[in-house]
Every structure is written in structure tokens, then in C-alpha cells.
């Protein structure tokens, strides 16, 4: 399970697919870990909750959040907290 969330190769493939489908540009080199963290959170939600609609959010458990952050750290230690949809 963690392999699908923490493996850089799996997340890179997921990001390439998402960029291709939505015609987005790849992240710059300095934001690679940020992109991997975001992809890891998305993978967790997709595996556990399936595809969510627009504006629907689900929190990622703290243990998974910290595992993702430890694997792909921010150089400044700045992380955006979970923001529920109201």
C-alpha cells in the first residue's frame, strides 16, 4: 500500500498521466518534492475514497501525512495544513 503512495516512480507516472490528461505543465525542478507530496496525498485519497467530486475533500490521516512529508521534505519546513471544504 505504501509503495503506491511513497514511491517516486509511481508518483512520477501518476503526475505525468495527470499532466497529460489536463494539459498541464510539469513542475519546476525546485518544486519536485512539493509535487510529489501533492501526488502522494492524491494517491492516498484515490485509493481509500475513490474519485471525489469538485470541492469535495477528505483528510489524510496524520500518520500518512507525516510519512509523505518525511519522504519528500520541504527544504524550509513549510507545509500547508488541511483546509476543509465548507
From TrEMBL:
Pfam families: P2RX7_C. InterPro entries: P2RX7_C. Residues 4-80 form the P2X purinoreceptor 7 intracellular domain. This is P2X purinoreceptor 7 intracellular domain-containing protein. It comes from Dreissena polymorpha (Zebra mussel). The lineage of its organism: Eukaryota, Metazoa, Spiralia, Lophotrochozoa, Mollusca.
Amino acid at each position: 500500500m505504501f509503495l503506491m503512495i511513497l514511491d517516486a516512480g509511481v508518483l512520477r507516472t501518476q503526475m505525468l498521466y495527470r499532466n497529460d490528461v489536463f494539459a498541464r505543465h510539469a513542475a519546476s525542478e525546485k518544486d519536485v518534492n512539493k509535487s510529489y507530496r501533492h501526488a502522494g496525498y492524491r494517491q492516498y485519497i484515490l485509493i481509500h475514497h475513490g474519485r471525489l467530486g469538485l470541492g469535495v475533500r477528505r483528510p489524510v490521516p496524520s500518520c500518512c501525512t507525516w510519512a509523505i512529508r518525511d519522504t519528500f521534505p520541504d527544504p524550509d519546513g513549510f507545509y500547508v495544513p488541511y483546509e476543509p471544504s465548507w
